[in-house]
Design brief:
The protein contains no helices and twelve strands. The protein is mostly beta strands. The chain is elongated and about 70 Å long. It starts with a strand and ends in a 12-residue tail after the last strand. The strands form four sheets. Strands 5-6-7-8-9-10 form a six-stranded mixed beta sheet, with no helix packed on it. The protein has a two-stranded antiparallel sheet with strand order 1-2. It has a two-stranded parallel sheet with strand order 3-4.
Length: about 150
């Protein structure tokens, strides 16, 4: 069932569509709340495309966000934000050059100038664990970590 309501009165188009059940675009019998067969374009007036993930009953309180941000007239980047302490902040960025930047705490993520850029706080001493199966094979940590495993340098 598709219902289109004009909340403003008269014959003006308010651009709101309410659907009871599942909505399929380009597909019959959708299996989820929204199923699209084909491409989807997301953008806004700020040259960004945002996909928000909110909690049930409070869509204004987003818990995560995926954003395309235009970095120049011919380039863009993909950003992933998560909520911590009530504030959305960027945690991962993929640049137009294919570089990946990861930030493990709140703050500014920066623009990576190398293929993999990881930023941590000074209290986060251990950066990476590499496993072979379920066995820890290698660890990368700050120089001041002292244990029998080594710093991975």
């Amino acid at each position: 069932m598709l219902q289109i309501h004009n909340r403003g009165g008269g014959n003006t188009d308010v651009g709101q569509v309410y659907v009871a059940g599942k909505l399929g675009i380009g597909i019959n019998n959708p299996s989820t709340a929204l199923e699209v067969k084909g491409d989807v374009t997301v953008y806004n007036a700020n040259n960004q495309g945002d996909i928000f993930f909110g909690e049930h009953g409070d869509v204004a309180d987003s818990k995560a966000l995926i954003r395309m941000d235009q970095s120049s007239s011919t380039a863009g980047m993909l950003q992933f934000h998560t909520e911590g302490g009530g504030t959305l902040s960027e945690k991962l960025r993929i640049t137009d050059a294919g570089f990946l930047s990861i930030y493990s705490n709140t703050g500014t993520i920066g623009n990576p100038s190398v293929p993999l850029h990881v930023t941590t706080t000074s209290s986060q001493q251990q950066l990476f664990y590499f496993y072979k199966g379920s066995t820890l094979a290698h660890r990368v940590a700050h120089d001041d970590v002292s244990d029998n495993f080594g710093s991975g340098n």
